[in-house]
Amino acid sequence: MASLELRGIHKYFQQQHSINGVSLKVEDGELLILLGPSGCGKSTLMRIISGLDTPTEGEVLIDGQAVTRLRPKDRNVAMVFQNYALYPHLTLYENIAFPLRVRGTRGTDVDGKVRWAAKMVGIEHLLDRKPRQTSGGERQRTALARSLVRDPDVFLLDEPLSNLDAKMRHTAREELREFQHRVKGTWLYVTHDQTEAMGMGDRVAVLNQGQVRQIGTPQEIYLHPADMFVATFVGMPPMNLVETPADVIGFRPEHYLPRAFFRDEGELVDIPMRLRRVEYLGGERLFYGETEGNYPATRVIARIPATVPYSQEVGELAAFAVRAGDLSLFDPQTQLARPRTGDARVLPLRQRSA
Amino acid sequence: MSSPYSGGMTTARENRMVACLTLLPSTLILILLVAVPAVTVIGLSFTDSGLGDGSGAFVGWRNYAWVFRSGAFYQALINTAIWVFGSVGTEMVLGLGVALLLNRSFFGRGLARAITFAPYLIPTVVAVLVWRYMFHDVVGILNYLLVAVGAIDQPLNWLDTPSMAMFSVIVVGVWKFLPFSVLALLGMLQSIPQEQYEAARIDGASDLQQFLRITLPYVMPVFLLTALLRTIWTFHKFDIIYLMTGGGPMDATTTLPVLVYEKAFVDFEMGRAAAMAIVTAVILAALLAVYFMLIRRAEAKQ
User: Fold this and answer.
1) In this complex, is the C-beta atom of B198 within 8 Å of any C-beta atom belonging to chain A?
2) CATH class of residue range A4-223
3) Could you tell me if B208 lies within 8 Å of chain A, comparing CB atoms?
4) pLDDT > 90: percent of chain B
5) Which of A82, A232, A286, B34 is buried deepest, with most CB atoms within 10 A?
6) How much is the pLDDT for B9?
7) A30 three-state secondary structure
8) ipTM value > 0.90
């Protein structure tokens, strides 16, 4: 088991700067999620770590050792591919045994290892099947078992759940997380799905345009986004951003509530909304509208649990507010979050609560 | 006409009618071009007909007995085996090699592919004329080049030496039909997902292991199918051999089709030629049965 570290990784493809100075460290036994939209460079980063690509600049370190110029097989890294990359002509057994066979491991050792790995992911009863005779979930678990037999230092998973249907994905997420706790090891997990990222990661690194925008726990990422990209990329629906002359103020839809809902909970910031549309989603309702009053007209969304009684006619001006402590402030030029200074902040366009 | 939804029996019968009617033209053509000649040849093989009279007397199995007693037949059988396995074997091995090269990305790959496929487009007669010229013992460029680089001391008589003629003919056959196996194998190689190789590299497989454990199993069904087709076509290939050497020198390149042709149209012994043709067909059929078994086994592995 080992840590994984990237130091100042740059990668150019032809003229394109696809990785722009990425540095991060995955601690021993940690699961770090690389979250980003498609084309943000997360798969390229995976390939650089696994050795399928070399960075134009920068170092990859595993357990403190530079492995940047080593061949893939000399890095002791295992990778689970998005489409699992199982060999169609081999049984699941032989697929799992593949890494051992190409290294010339003795037959009896192979058998023990394969059965152990298959048991870990619960596919012992399918070992005689060919990949095409199994379901997507079973293939995914086979790919996991194959990555396991070599006792790798680092596990790389490239969108391992994206080929499963929504229902399977949910259980697979739990299984995967449990699996990671069982086998330990250092895991780097790439996804564009924020539900996966928030639900599975010890920490999440948000990547965009080849740069790490923020690294932190799911809570940190969600509550205190480091810039406007993270604020809107993480969260469904995204954080509301309203531009004011001095700042861009941001607030999560679930913090943006009818004024009447608040009691003595400190400072409030009133942001009235002209209601345009209400969306009923079962567990919750989304209120779409436009800000009015002292704010430039901006589309905003409020989220209220369906169990909380609240009704408002479409077209009405509704009194909505956010607690001052729940506001995020961004610099409109750099798009970066302003440093948080606690509740004593003075807001430029704040309206005093009664 | 009633609508397709108007009822079970009528519709089913109408569908059968349409099917039969549309099949009729191709069935007729097949009967005329394949079934009738085949039956005629079988009939001929039991007679002592000459060319053109078609009214020979029934001789029973005597023609077949002659075929199996004839030394020329066995010599032609051996020549055919050398010709078929020499050509197809070389085409397949070389074809896989060339396909592997063309599957890599390099500068000018498009041009390289175009050049590789060119021989397939050149008419056989033209190709044979060019090659005969190149093989010529006095003015041929092959001898000139080989002497120039010091590979041989004196010009070789490529087509007129019994021990070399078959080799020369195989060279031309391979040159002409290599593109076919390259095309088939290249198509298969391009369909192998790149992730398979990447996964194998991370798992520690060497280039040779990747070839043996991924590439080869992937292309095997197509490889065998191509070999099967090439075997059929090479087995009864006539034009290249006959135009290059006429079956000579000293019958060194007389394969079964050449021998059948000579029996029928040089010796005018249609009955014996027909018997030989039937025996040839049976041998080919036995060969194909082996291929089909191999293909089935390879496909079952997928």
Assistant:
1) yes
2) alpha beta
3) no
4) 33
5) A82
6) 57
7) coil
8) no
Assign A14 to helix, strand or coil: coil
Tokens of A175: 């299984």
Percent of chain A with pLDDT over 70: 95
Residue B133 lies in a domain: yes
**Do A217 and A35 contact (CB within 8 A), yes or no?**
no
Q: Hey, is the C-beta of A141 within 8 angstroms of any chain B C-beta? A: no
* Alpha carbons A215 and A33: distance in angstroms, whole number: 9
Question: What is A238-330's CATH superfamily?
Answer: Nucleic acid-binding proteins (2.40.50.140)
Q: Is B53 inside any structural domain?
A: no
DSSP A245: S
Interface contacts (A, B; CB < 8 Å)? 62
Question: What digits encode the pLDDT tens for the residues A98-150?
Answer: 999 988 888 888 999 999 889 888 888 999 999 999 988 899 889 989 998 88
Cα separation of A122 and B39, whole Å? 62
C-beta atoms of A102 and B217 within 8 A: no
A89 CB within 8 Å of a chain B CB? yes
pLDDT of A345 > 50? The answer is no
Q: Where in chain A is the domain with CATH 3.40.50.300?
A: 4-223
Cβ pair A52:B201 closer than 8 A: yes
Per DSSP, the residues of A263-293 read: -S-S-EEE--EEEEEEEE-SSEEEEEEEE-T
Owning domain of residue B236 = 71-301
| A105 touching B (Cβ < 8 Å) | no
A83 touches chain B (CB under 8 A): yes
Q: Is A139 on the interface with B (CB under 8 A)?
A: no
Nearest to A102 among B193, B209, B217 (CB): B209
Overall pTM > 0.80: no
Q: Which of A52, A78, A85 is nearest residue B196 as measured by Cβ atoms?
A: A85
Q: Do B200 and A98 touch (CB under 8 A)?
A: yes
Average pLDDT over every residue of B290-300: 84
A73 and B217 within 8 Å at the Cβ level: the answer is no
